[in-house]
Design a protein that fits this description.
Elements (H helix, E strand, L loop, with lengths): L1 E2 L2 E2 L9 E5 L8 E5 L5 H10 L1 H11 L1 E4 L7 H11 L3 E2 L18 E2 L9 E4 L11 E8 L8 E5 H7 L2 H10 L1 E7 L16 H5 L4 H10 L6 E3 L5 E8 L2 E3 L6 E3 L10 H13 L2 H20 L6 E5 L7 H13 L1 E2 L8 E5 L3 E5 L8 E7 L18 H11 L27 H10 L31
Parallel strand pairs: 4-5
Antiparallel strand pairs: 1-2, 3-4, 5-18, 6-20, 7-20, 8-19, 9-18, 9-20, 10-17, 10-19, 11-13, 11-16, 12-13, 14-15
Length: about 475
C-alpha cells in the first residue's frame, strides 16, 4: 500500500497487527506486534489510523507495548509517539534530572542518574495538580545484564490491596509535601531530588520568572529560603488517592513510596532478592546505615519530603505495607531495542529496577497535563465489585468491547475488511488468538517475569 511518498505492506486495518499478552493473568501490558510490515512508515500510519482503538487498549489494560518495529533513534520514537498522541508536552516539573535528545522536542532521557539507582514505582508527577495523562517509554539500548527493567504496577490494585487501616490513615490525614531545590544540584546524592536544581527544573535563573510559572500552573506559592535566599521551597497538602478520570476507580496517587528515606535501601534489598547480585545487597546495607544517620539521627529531610497531612512522619511500618501492596502487583518485562511502551499515567505506575549495565538507554515522553482535581473525591466512590467495574469500563470503551477478546480487533478480518492481506485460514487463527472459543495466547514473544513480593524479611525492618 502507498500513502503519499511512503510505501508499506498490507492494509491499515487491525488485522495487520498481532496482539498478545506477556502475562495472560495480569494482561499488563497488551503487546502489539507487526504481522507483515515492521517499518516506521507503517507504524506511524497505522497508529494514526487506529488512534482511538489504541487509546482504548491503554485505558483498559493500563499499558500497551509496541514490540518488533524498527525504531532506531529518538526521532523515530518521537514520530511514532506523536502518532499515538499528537498533543505532547515538553514541560517537566518532576524530580529527576532529564535532558532532551538532539533532533527532538519531546523525547527526554528517562533519568540522568546512575542506572544502579533504583527508582520506586510512581505515577509521573503525581504530586502536581496537573500530571500528564499518558506516558511513553522507548528503548534505545536494552540492558544485557540483570535488572534494568521498567517495571509496571496497577495502582488501582495497590489501593485495593493495601492494609485497610493503613489506607484509611492516608485517606483521613492526607499528605503534606515539602519541595526543596538548590540553585545548583548535587552531582552525587542519596536523594535523587537533590541532583535537580531549580534553574534546570524551570529553565531559568530568574526567581520572579519561576514564581510566575508556578502561578500560571496553579501550583503552590514559592518561597525562597537558605542563607543566600536562593533555595526554592514549596509546601502544600494533597490527597493520597484520586479517582480515575474515565473509570472513576480509586487509584493510589502520590509519591510517598518514592520519597521516603527507607525507599532507597528497601528497593536495593528488593532488587537483591530478585537478581541475587551481591552488589545490591552491599549497597542496601550501606544506604540503610546512611539513611538512619542522615534522616533519623541528624534530622535531614528529602528534597521532596512527604509526611502525613498533620505533619507527623510516615512510619517505616506504614511504608512497608505500601511496598508490599506494590510488590505484589508489579510486573517485569525485559526491554528489547525498539520497544515503545504507552502507559495510562492515571492508573499504572512505572519504576526502574537497578542494573550495572551502564549502556542501558531509555527515553521518555509525555502527553499534555490533565487536572486531577477535575474528578472530585466527594463524588460517589466508584465501583466496589468486579461486575459493576466491567459495566462501567464497557461504557468508557468502544461498543465493540466483548469479555472474550481484545476490543475491536476481531472486527477487522477478511469477512469485513476488503483491504485485508490475510487468507481465510489466517483470519480464523487470528480470531482464535484474540479470544474466541479455543483462544491460545501467542507465545512468540520474549519471556515475561512476574515476581510476587519476596517472602524474605525486609531489610528496612532495621528501622522499625
Amino acid at each position: 500500500m502507498t500513502t503519499g511518498a511512503r510505501e508499506f505492506v498490507g492494509s491499515l486495518g487491525l488485522d495487520n497487527i498481532a496482539t498478545s499478552y506477556l502475562d495472560p493473568t495480569t494482561k499488563l501490558p497488551l503487546v502489539l506486534s507487526p504481522r507483515l510490515d515492521d517499518s516506521l512508515a507503517f507504524l506511524a500510519a497505522w497508529l494514526d489510523a487506529n488512534r482511538a482503538w489504541v487509546d482504548e487498549q491503554i485505558l483498559q489494560h493500563g499499558a500497551v507495548l509496541l514490540r518488533g518495529f524498527r525504531l532506531d533513534n529518538p526521532a523515530d520514537f518521537e514520530q511514532a509517539i506523536s502518532a499515538v498522541q499528537p498533543n505532547l508536552s515538553d514541560s517537566y516539573r518532576g524530580t529527576s534530572p532529564r535532558s532532551v535528545f538532539e533532533g527532538t522536542r519531546y523525547c527526554f532521557s528517562a533519568a540522568d542518574v546512575p542506572v544502579n539507582y533504583p527508582i520506586g514505582q510512581h505515577l509521573e508527577m503525581s504530586f502536581l495538580k496537573k500530571p500528564p495523562r499518558q506516558l511513553y517509554f522507548g528503548c534505545l539500548q536494552e540492558s544485557t545484564s540483570g535488572g534494568g527493567e521498567t517495571s509496571l504496577c496497577d495502582f488501582r490494585a495497590v489501593f485495593r490491596d493495601m492494609d485497610p487501616e493503613v489506607r484509611q490513615k492516608f485517606v483521613d490525614k492526607k499528605l503534606r509535601y515539602n519541595r526543596t531545590h538548590k540553585k545548583v544540584g548535587e552531582k552525587w546524592a542519596f536523594d535523587v531530588g537533590d541532583m535537580l536544581s531549580w534553574t534546570q527544573l524551570f529553565g531559568t535563573a530568574d526567581k520572579e520568572e519561576v514564581e510566575d510559572i508556578c502561578r500560571e500552573e496553579d501550583e503552590a506559592e514559592v518561597q525562597w529560603i537558605g542563607p543566600k535566599n536562593d533555595t526554592f521551597f514549596q509546601e502544600w497538602t494533597d490527597d493520597a488517592y484520586q479517582l480515575h478520570p474515565v473509570t472513576k476507580e480509586e487509584v493510589w496517587f502520590n509519591h510517598a513510596q518514592v520519597f521516603h528515606y527507607s525507599t532507597f535501601p528497601a528497593e536495593l534489598w528488593y532488587a537483591f532478592t530478585r537478581i541475587r547480585d551481591v552488589r545490591f545487597l552491599l549497597r542496601a546495607i550501606l544506604f540503610a546505615i546512611v539513611a538512619v544517620i542522615k534522616y533519623c539521627l541528624l534530622g535531614h529531610r528529602m528534597a521532596l519530603d512527604i509526611r502525613y497531612g498533620d505533619g507527623s512522619d510516615i512510619t517505616v511500618a506504614d511504608m512497608n505495607e505500601i511496598r508490599k501492596a506494590v510488590h505484589d502487583n508489579m510486573v517485569f518485562t525485559t526491554w528489547q531495542k525498539g520497544d515503545l511502551m504507552c502507559i495510562d499515567n492515571f492508573s499504572t505506575s512505572h519504576g526502574r529496577q537497578p542494573t550495572y549495565d551502564f549502556g542501558r538507554k531509555i527515553l521518555v515522553a509525555w502527553s499534555e497535563p490533565h487536572d486531577k482535581t477535575s474528578t472530585p473525591l466527594h463524588s460517589p466512590i466508584a465501583v466496589k465489585n468486579e461486575e459493576a467495574n466491567m459495566t462501567l469500563l464497557k461504557k468508557c470503551c468502544s461498543e465493540l468491547y466483548d469479555d472474550a477478546h481484545v476490543p475491536g480487533a476481531v472486527e477487522a478480518t477478511p469477512n469485513t475488511s476488503p483491504d485485508s492481506t490475510l487468507s481465510s485460514d489466517e483470519a480464523h487463527d487470528l480470531k482464535e488468538l484474540l479470544g474466541l472459543p479455543g483462544n491460545r495466547v501467542s507465545t512468540n514473544v520474549a519471556p515475561h517475569k512476574r515476581h510476587i513480593s519476596c517472602p524474605n524479611p525486609s531489610l528496612t525492618s532495621i528501622f522499625s
